[in-house]
Amino acid sequence: MVPRIAWLAARAPRDPHRAWEGYWKDIRTTGAGGQVLWDSASDAEREQYAEALRAHLDTSLPVIDVGCGNGSFTRWLAGIFPEALGIDVSPSAIARAEAEAAGLANVSFAVVDATEPGAEVSPYPGGCNVFVRGVLHVLPPRSRAQLAANVRTSVRGGRVFLTETNFPGSSLEYVERLGAAPGYIPAGLKRAIAGLPRPGHFGATERGAAFPADQWQLLADGPAVIHTVPAETAESTPIPGYFAVLQPRKGV
Ligand SMILES: C[S@@+](CC[C@H](N)C(=O)[O-])C[C@H]1O[C@@H](n2cnc3c(N)ncnc32)[C@H](O)[C@@H]1O
């Protein structure tokens, strides 16, 4: 199994933006049973976030879903906040998100590289919240820090909610958890291994490095469970994760 995974991973484009666009361009089905590994459309996963969002974020402000993909969570957030904007580096992801959200009045999308130095991720001068799911763990440390810096200048009084996979074992144990076995790799997992940047851990240590304590106040954090759909069936696989709620320190 290891040589097969190494062979697949060697095919992934080295340029991460090209990799994401190549991935999204070929996606035909999403949601439970769809082709997107992390898009399980799981109510159980959303419910675990709803309480923390309502407790810590100002729900009268808009929210930006950074790295929104096909916008599953953007649409869900639009039921909690007055307005939800999904941004993603991949034009094909945004096209798909727009199609899936057709008819929803308070949802919009834009192509933005959230890791570009100085990128303006928010069109809201009156402040906004930021939601991030499953983006930081696929970025290298420098890009994580740049994303955090861009978000920091954008929220203007709002707060950040992030949730990321934080699998404690090795890469091999991770793919086994996602259903890989000798002679078999689930289709959704295979597509991700062969096309996307390699995921890493994202827990309290990585959060502290990207969102340094002298600039960010940690309001809450703890374990989360991320639901994935590696085998393109309606059955989801839970992966251990980490969530945090942060706000920029004033006057820094
Ligand atoms: C694992 S997916 C998660 C998608 C979505 N947040 C969800 O949970 O369904 C990571 C997403 O981040 C996007 N992404 C990666 N790098 C980015 C960047 N520099 N700026 C904006 N989006 C980025 C990818 O295109 C992809 O849609």
Please supply descriptive tags for the structure shown above.
252 residues; alpha/beta; Rossmann fold; seven-stranded mixed β-sheet; 35% helix; globular; binds S-adenosylmethionine
What would your notes on this structure say?
With 252 residues, the chain is of the alpha/beta class. It has one domain: 3-Layer(aba) Sandwich (Rossmann fold). It has helices spanning 2-10, 16-25, 43-56, 72-77, 91-100, 141-155, 171-177, 187-195, 204-210; strands spanning 63-66, 84-88, 107-111, 129-133, 160-165, 216-228, 237-248. A seven-stranded mixed sheet has the order 3-2-1-4-5-7-6. The chain is globular, with a radius of gyration of 17 Å. The mean pLDDT is 95. It binds S-adenosylmethionine (SAM). Residues 20, 38-39, 67-69, 72-73, 88-90, 93, 113-115, 133-135, 138 line the site of S-adenosylmethionine. GO terms for molecular function: methyltransferase activity. It comes from Arthrobacter crusticola.
